[in-house]
Design brief:
By secondary structure, the protein is mainly α. The chain contains ten helices and no strands. The protein has helices at about 30-35, 40-55, 60-70, 75-90, 90-105, 110-120, 125-140, 145-155, 160-175, 175-195.
Length: about 210
């Protein structure tokens, strides 16, 4: 089954200003020097991770985010972006604890619940995925992708009555997306009849770290 395209990867710099800004590629050398000069500064390590991520260098980005979480275990965005980097590298088992920790630190942070749910989904833990998407819909009642993910995971875990209710809510928010869910479900049923189980589609991930 064709997966829904994942949103473009974005990481945000943790700065003192009210509105975080995205690190530019040209900042990498400067941020690397700052991190080396301040090895116990969680913000310096985090910002270096942002710069690496913006260049598509996910391995060093993840390592920098990991160092930031070790220095400041309560830095929510470091846990979140560590999980997101690992998820982009298909390291779902490694990503899961980071998303879980982010939700513990900030229970109102919907993107962490969305990506935790997506990680559970990738691991085939559909009931846990449904729980994550359900919490995301509670935090963001009009989030179409959260409702799509919840409806699909309810179907995958055999909760068809609940899935029908969620389908109706999804139809109210976005009829085209609801039709897509129905079409994918019917296609999956057909494939299972002919070829056996196939991978489930994923709801679009939420990369923002705001």
């Amino acid at each position: 089954m064709r997966a829904v395209a994942v949103a473009q990867l974005l990481f945000l710099v943790l700065v003192a200003s009210v509105h975080p800004v995205v690190a530019q590629d040209s900042d990498l050398d400067k941020l690397k020097a700052e991190a080396e000069a301040n090895p116990r500064d969680a913000r310096a390590q985090y910002n270096l991770g942002v710069a690496y991520a913006n260049k598509g260098q996910l391995d060093p980005a993840a390592e920098s985010f990991r160092r930031a979480t070790e220095i400041d275990p309560k830095l929510t965005l470091a846990h979140y972006n560590l999980g997101y980097a690992l998820m982009q590298m298909k390291k779902h088992k490694e990503a899961l604890p980071s998303f879980q920790r982010a939700t513990e630190l900030d229970p109102k942070y919907a993107p962490a619940f969305m990506n935790m749910a997506g990680t559970y989904q990738a691991l085939g833990q559909f009931k846990d995925a449904a729980d994550g998407y359900r919490e995301a819909t509670r935090l963001r009642p009009d989030d179409v992708e959260a409702h799509f993910g919840l409806a699909w995971m309810l179907l995958q875990s055999g909760q068809k009555a609940a899935a029908d209710d969620e389908y109706r809510e999804l139809s109210r928010l976005d009829k085209a997306r609801a039709d897509s869910l129905y079409d994918q479900y019917k296609q999956k049923e057909k494939e299972q009849e002919n070829q056996g189980p196939s991978p489930a589609p994923t709801a679009a991930a939420s990369p923002e770290g705001q």
